Amino acid sequence: MFNTKNLIWTNLNQIRNIPDHILTWLDDYQSLTAKLKQKFNRFSVNILSQKKSIPHADEIELLDWHSQFVVREVELLGNDQVIVFARSIIPITDNTQRLLKIGSHPLGEMLFNDINIKRGQLQITHTHGTWGRRSIFTIGSTQVLVSEFFIKDS
């Protein structure tokens, strides 16, 4: 698994010198799932973990929520190779019950196919040669944090 603890995140508009081939993936407010399905003949989701857990302190602070959470960690595969590691922090509320039952379906499909779900600002991190991004999706009064780490140059 990818270590997501103690990363330094910066708003996308405050970062310079991101290589163009990386920036096209980081600076994209469309569905990553849809983009990967277009790029690869075979796309799949490998669930590494989905369980009640305590998120990292910076994740809880960002969500400003004091409740129980499900932490979902998955690999997004293109042509059977891991392309993205994704970590989602999903508060357990009435607003998130459908998300918590998606199994091996991509979370992105649900988030981007509902016009009532709003996406917040992108934050970026770079650690050990890997670029990542995260943003908050608002579902009703609930905030869901989705972080995506690009394991391979896509």
From TrEMBL:
The gene is ubiC. This is Chorismate--pyruvate lyase. Keywords: Cytoplasm, Lyase, Ubiquinone biosynthesis. PANTHER family: CHORISMATE PYRUVATE-LYASE. SUPFAM superfamilies: Chorismate lyase-like (SSF64288). Its EC number is 4.1.3.-. One of its GO terms (biological process) is ubiquinone biosynthetic process. The lineage of its organism: Bacteria, Pseudomonadati, Pseudomonadota, Gammaproteobacteria, Candidatus Pseudothioglobaceae. GO terms for cellular component: cytosol. Gene3D superfamilies: Chorismate lyase-like.
